[in-house]
Model the fold of this input.
Amino acid sequence: MTVWVCLLRGVNVGGANRLPMPEFRALLADLGLPGAVSHIQSGNAVFRAAEAPEVLAARISHGLARRFGIATPVLLRSLAQIEAALAANPFPEAAPTALHFFFLGNGLSDDLQVSLQARAVDGETLVVANDLAWLHAPVGIGRSRLAEALGRLKLPVTARNLRTVQALAKIARTLP
Done:
């Protein structure tokens, strides 16, 4: 069985898409994923499953819509993928709150990457590899035009800061 990290986009942000984590864990258990562990209130969970990620994501998405009325992208990464993302971090000296991992539904074209890079200000740097982008935003992500553009892509995308990705990896490594 694979250890999966589930990343939801836009839950419990500014009062929208309210999803209490105990209820999210209960939904996962009802979907045949018992023992899921959640991390903070922003829609992160870690669990074991044998199914393909596309099947799991569809089940979770359907369950969220049916039970809570939440329609949001569900992105799954295996523990191995999370570990690889951390190991490949192109900004090892960045402060944990200045580095964000953008998990993408698929890769970005070269033209789109160039277009995104053009939005960088205040020392921001974007590195893209397949379905992952690292954004180093030294002055913060709150006012970043580059982060805003990444969030508005016409594909499933969600971001987590370095500290959260490290915590999810730790949980996934120790999942019973």
Observations:
- The mean pLDDT is 94.
- The first helix runs from residue 21 to 30.
